[in-house]
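> call design_seq(struct)
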C-alpha cells in the first residue's frame, strides 16, 4: 500500500533549478536510500516530504493517519529544552495511547450492555495494537536504553549546553522513540563513532515502518535499503531496485548502454549533416520529412557521462625519515584524563585511521600533534621536511560571508583580472579549476553560507590539496560528502605521495584507505593495529576473547578451593584480611552472579512480554476485567526488575573489564 506520493515537485533558488518534475512514491515498510551529488537537492527534498518547507510546484500526499518523523543533518530544539523534555515529546503519542487504554478498560469493567461492551472491546483491541506499534507498555525503559547506548547520561541537562555530537544523539533517540510510519533520516551517522553506527544500523533494521535515508556510509546503504533513488541536479529521480552495490552495477550497465546508443546517434547525425550539405537534393519536397527528423534529432540532448569533481593535488615535497612522532603524550581537562602515555609514529606513505568513541580524545590528539595544544607530559617530534595540511571538522577555515570564488583563494570583489593557481608546473585559471570541481560560474558568485554542507566540504578539501603538503591530517572529512566525491577522495588518498592521518566513522572508507588503525579505547589509552578497519575489528575481537578466557581461567582455581571448603587464612590462622580488587577480576560471588545474569534477564523479559501480551488481548477484559489493575502493577514491577538487571549486568561487565 502506498504510504507517501510526491508528484511533479519543482524547487529553485533564484536562477538555479534544484529539481523539476520530480515524482516519488514510497510504499509501507519500504527502505529507500536517496543518493545524488552535493547540491542536487537531497536535503531540500527531505524537508518538503516532512512538510518542513514547501516546493515551488507540486504536491505531497500522505496516507490518512500515517505519521512522519524527520531527522535533519543539524537537529533543532526549542528554547529551554532538556534531554528529558525532548524524550517526553517523543513519547507523547505512546502516553496518549496508554491513557486511552486505561480509560477504555475502566469503562469496560462497568459496561453491562452487550452491544456497547463489544464496541469497547473492539476499540480496546485497536488501542492495544497502536501501543505495540509505538513500542510497548513500558514508557521509560526503552528511552533509557536508547540514551545509555548513545552515551547520553544527563537527563536533566539543557540541550543547549550539549556538544553538537551529543545533541545529534538526543535527536536520534527522540526520532527512534516516535516509532513513525515513515522515518526520514538526513546523514544520521554524522558525529557518531563507528561502534554507535553499527548499533544504529541494528536499530533501524528492527524498525517496522518505512525509511528514507540520506547517508554517505556505503555499508549502511548496503545493509539497510532495498531500493536506491538517485536525484539528478535540475531534473527528477531515477529508481533502482536493490541496495547500493546493486545500484552501482545497474548504473554502470545503464551508462554503457547509453554510451553505445549515443555513439550510434552521433554517427547518424554525421550522415544526415553530410546529406543536408548536398543542397539541391535536400530541398526537394519529398525530403522535407527527413530534414525535419534530422533537425529534431540534432536539437535533442544526447547522453553525456555524468561529470565528476576533479580535485587536483599540488606536488608535495619529499618527506624526511622522521615524519611525525609522539612519545608519552599526556593531556587532561578539568581532572579528566584524555591522553595517557600515548606513543605514536607516522611513517612515510602510511595512512593511519584514528577510531574510538566520541569524546575519547581523537581530536585532542590531533591538536597536540599539530602544536595547537600543549601536552601536559611527553613530546612531539616533527620531521624537518614535514609540511602539514589540516582539515578540521568544524570547517573553521571557511568564512561564510565570502563568495565561493573568494574562499577558494580568488580576488575580493572589485578587483579586476584573472586569478591563477599552480598545479604540477601548470598555470590554471582558478575559475576553470572551480568549474572542474562542479562549481559553475553562477555558483562561484554565491556566498559560502548558501552552499550545502557537502559543497562546503568539497571546497575545503580542494583548497587543502592545493597547499602542497606532504602530511594530510583529516578530521571527519567524509561528513556530508556525496558518494561520487567520496570515491574521488579515496582515489586521491590512495595515490597521494605522502602520509595521512584520518579520523572518520566511515567504515567503508577506512577499509579502502587505511593501512593501520590507531584505536582510542578509553582511559587515555591508544592501541595501534595493522591493516584496515575490518582487520582491526577482527584483531580486537580476538584480543577481547583471549582476555575473557584468561579471566575465566584465573577464577577456576579459586572456585575449586572454595568448593573444597578451603577458606584463605592469615598468618595467625585467622581469616585473611580483605585484599584490594585486582583490575579485571571479579569475586567468586560476582562471577557466579554474572554467569546467571543472562538467564535472569531472559526470565524477566519473558514475564514482561507475557504481561504485555495479556494486556493487549481483548479477551483478558472479557474474562476478568478486575484483574487488569493487578496486571498493570505487576508489569510496572517487572519492568523495573528488567532495568535493574541490565544495570547490574553492565556494572559487572565493567568490573570484569578492569573498570572501577
Amino acid at each position: 500500500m502506498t504510504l507517501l506520493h510526491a508528484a511533479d515537485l519543482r524547487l529553485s533558488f533564484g536562477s538555479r533549478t534544484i529539481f523539476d518534475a520530480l515524482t516519488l512514491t514510497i510504499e509501507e515498510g519500504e527502505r529507500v536510500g536517496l543518493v545524488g551529488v552535493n547540491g542536487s537537492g537531497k536535503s531540500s527534498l527531505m524537508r518538503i516530504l516532512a512538510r518542513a518547507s514547501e516546493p515551488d510546484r507540486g504536491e505531497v500526499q500522505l496516507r490518512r493517519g500515517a505519521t512522519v518523523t524527520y531527522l535533519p543533518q543539524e537537529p533543532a530544539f526549542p528554547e529551554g529544552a532538556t534531554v528529558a523534555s525532548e524524550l517526553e515529546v517523543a513519547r507523547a503519542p505512546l502516553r496518549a495511547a496508554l491513557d486511552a487504554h486505561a480509560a477504555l478498560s475502566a469503562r469496560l469493567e462497568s459496561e453491562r450492555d452487550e452491544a456497547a461492551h463489544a464496541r469497547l472491546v473492539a476499540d480496546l483491541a485497536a488501542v492495544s495494537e497502536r501501543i505495540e506499534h509505538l513500542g510497548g507498555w513500558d514508557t521509560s525503559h526503552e528511552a533509557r536504553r536508547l540514551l545509555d547506548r548513545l552515551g547520553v547520561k544527563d537527563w536533566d541537562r539543557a540541550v543547549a549546553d550539549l556538544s553538537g555530537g551529543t545533541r545529534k544523539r538526543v535527536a536520534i533517540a527522540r526520532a527512534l522513540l516516535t516509532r513513525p510510519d515513515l522515518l526520514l533520516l538526513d546523514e544520521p551517522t554524522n558525529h557518531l563513532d563507528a561502534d554507535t553506527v553499527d548499533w544504529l544500523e541494528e536499530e533501524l533494521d528492527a524498525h517496522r515502518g518505512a525509511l528514507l535515508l540520506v547517508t554517505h556510509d556505503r555499508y549502511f546503504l548496503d545493509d539497510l535499503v532495498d531500493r536506491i533513488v538517485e536525484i539528478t541536479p535540475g531534473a527528477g529521480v531515477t529508481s533502482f531496485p536493490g541496495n547500493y552495490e546493486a545500484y552501482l552495477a545497474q548504473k554502470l550497465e545503464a551508462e554503457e548502454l547509453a554510451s553505445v546508443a549515443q555513439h550510434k546517434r552521433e554517427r547518424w547525425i554525421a550522415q544526415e549533416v553530410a546529406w543536408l550539405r548536398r543542397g539541391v537534393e535536400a530541398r526537394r519536397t519529398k525530403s522535407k520529412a527527413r530534414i525535419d527528423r534530422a533537425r529534431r534529432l540534432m536539437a535533442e540532448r544526447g547522453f553525456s557521462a555524468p561529470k565528476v569533481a576533479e580535485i587536483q593535488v599540488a606536488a608535495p615535497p619529499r618527506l624526511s625519515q622522521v615524519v611525525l612522532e609522539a612519545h608519552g603524550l599526556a593531556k587532561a581537562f578539568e581532572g579528566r584524563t584524555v591522553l595517557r602515555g600515548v606513543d605514536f609514529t607516522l611513517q612515510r606513505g602510511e595512512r593511519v585511521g584514528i577510531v574510538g568513541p566520541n569524546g575519547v580524545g581523537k581530536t585532542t590528539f590531533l591538536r597536540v600533534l599539530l602544536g595547537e595544544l600543549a601536552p601536559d607530559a611527553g613530546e612531539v617530534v616533527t620531521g624537518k621536511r614535514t609540511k602539514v595540511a589540516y582539515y578540521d571538522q568544524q570547517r573553521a577555515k571557511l568564512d561564510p560571508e565570502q563568495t565561493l570564488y573568494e574562499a577558494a583563494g580568488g580576488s575580493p570583489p572589485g578587483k579586476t583580472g584573472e586569478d591563477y593557481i599552480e598545479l604540477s608546473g601548470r598555470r590554471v585559471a582558478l575559475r576553470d579549476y572551480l568549474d572542474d570541481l562542479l562549481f559553475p560560474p553562477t555558483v562561484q558568485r554565491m556566498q559560502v553560507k548558501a552552499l550545502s554542507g557537502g559543497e562546503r566540504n568539497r571546497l575545503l578539501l580542494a583548497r587543502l590539496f592545493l597547499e602542497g603538503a606532504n602530511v594530510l591530517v583529516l578530521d571527519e572529512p567524509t561528513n556530508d560528502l556525496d558518494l561520487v566525491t567520496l570515491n574521488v577522495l579515496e582515489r586521491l588518498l590512495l595515490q597521494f605521495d605522502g602520509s595521512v592521518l584520518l579520523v572518520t566513522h566511515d567504515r567503508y572508507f577506512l577499509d579502502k584507505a587505511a593501512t593501520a588503525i590507531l584505536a582510542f579505547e578509553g582511559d587515555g589509552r591508544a592501541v595501534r593495529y595493522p591493516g584496515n578497519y575490518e582487520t582491526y575489528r577482527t584483531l580486537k575481537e580476538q584480543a577481547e576473547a583471549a582476555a575473557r578466557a584468561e579471566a575465566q581461567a584465573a577464577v577456576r582455581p579459586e572456585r575449586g578451593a572454595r568448593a573444597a571448603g578451603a577458606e584463605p587464612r592469615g598468618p595467625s590462622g585467622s581469616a585473611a584480611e580483605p585484599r584490594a580488587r585486582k583490575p579485571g577480576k571479579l569475586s567468586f560471588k560476582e562471577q557466579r552472579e554474572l554467569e546467571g545474569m543472562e538467564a535472569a534477564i531472559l526470565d524477566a523479559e519473558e514475564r514482561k512480554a507475557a504481561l504485555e501480551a495479556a494486556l493487549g488481548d481483548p479477551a483478558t477484559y472479557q474474562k476478568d476485567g478486575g484483574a487488569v489493575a493487578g496486571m498493570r502493577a505487576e508489569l510496572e514491577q517487572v519492568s523495573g526488575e528488567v532495568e535493574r538487571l541490565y544495570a547490574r549486568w553492565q556494572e559487572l561487565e565493567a568490573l570484569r573489564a578492569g573498570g572501577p
